[in-house]
Specification:
By secondary structure, this protein is an alpha+beta fold. It contains five helices and nine strands. A hairpin with a 6-residue loop joins strand 7 and strand 8. The protein is elongated, with a radius of gyration of 20 Å.
């Protein structure tokens, strides 16, 4: 018997931090190996790491956003590397700038087809958006945890808006419980 945690896969973790100082992006982009900076296209530096695989966006204000990591630990490791790389260029970065997880996107598979029309009717319209002509999934907004679950007819779902990985587990458990109560999940 598999547990809920077995069926959830973190796809992306987005976190932010702040170096609390203005940065000269032109110079930083030149000095950081592999940094991409095209101010006409995007107002920040894109600094990619292969291990852990992630991209950190560095802005003139000193704000940084790390995206593409597959776990909260990877985000902390990636930003630690980025902060060290910036320090090596002589820029004063606090020893442990606070890192705030903004969004964890996870996926799961209920391993059975779903009747989205029946689910939309069963769950009620207050928390549901379902317009199959516009988008093939049903949007289910939960209040506790405060996340959005996208359900697809294939049985796959995407959970977004979580701040901690447990939120995705709670959301999946809630969805399974509600669909079982409605007789829409075997």
């Amino acid at each position: 018997m598999s547990t809920l945690a077995d069926t959830i896969h973190i796809e992306n973790v987005v976190a932010s931090s702040d170096l609390n100082q203005e940065l000269a992006l032109d110079q930083l982009a030149t000095d950081l190996p592999g940094a991409e900076y095209n101010p006409e296209d995007f107002p920040g530096i894109v600094y990619r790491l292969q291990e852990p695989k992630s991209a950190t966006l560095i802005f003139r204000s000193g704000k940084v956003v790390c995206t593409g990591a597959k776990s909260v630990n990877d985000v902390h490791e990636a930003l630690g590397i980025v902060f060290d790389d910036i320090r090596e260029l002589g820029i004063d970065v606090a020893s442990n700038p606070p890192i705030e997880v903004q969004n964890i996107v996870s996926s799961a598979d209920l391993k059975q087809s779903l009747n989205l029309n029946a689910i939309a009717i069963g769950l009620g319209l207050e928390q549901i958006e379902y317009e199959p002509e516009q988008f093939p999934g049903l949007v289910y907004r939960l209040e506790d945890p405060d996340v959005v679950v996208l359900l697809f007819g294939s049985g796959k779902l995407v959970i977004t808006g979580a701040n901690e990985s447990e939120d995705a587990q709670h959301a999946l458990a809630h969805v399974k419980d509600r669909l079982t109560e409605l007789g829409l999940l075997e």
